[in-house]
Amino acid sequence: MPLGYTVKIVPDAEALTIAGMESVMLQFRSATASIVFNSLNETLDDVRIDGQPVRSVVSDNQQQLTTVILGAPVRPGK
């Protein structure tokens, strides 16, 4: 469950693109090794949890979902 967001967006008017950075504070209700969230037409790189790189990131624009597979399961809590 997201508790808060910090977002930085940098538009490139000539290329008609945007880049940016997002940080999300999460509350986990139970242990998990994956996080799934809504997304569309996003390219994610350097995805981390608690400063550690994740195992993989797979975006599915057809389903409008991104799945982040963690290197190790997280425990309940922030």
What does this structure look like?
- With 78 residues, this protein is mainly beta.
- Helix content is 0%, strand content 60%.
- The protein has strands at residues 2-12, 17-26, 32-38, 48-49, 52-53, 56-60, 65-74.
- The strands form 3 sheets. A 3-stranded antiparallel beta sheet has the order 3-7-6, with no helix packed on it. It has a two-stranded antiparallel ribbon with strand order 1-2.
- The model has no long low-confidence stretch (mean pLDDT 93).
Cα-atom radius of gyration = 14 Å
Strand order across the biggest sheet? 3-7-6
The overall pLDDT average reads: 93
Shape: globular
Question: Regarding quaternary structure, how should these chains be classified?
Answer: single chain
Count of beta strands: 7
Fraction in beta strands? over 45%
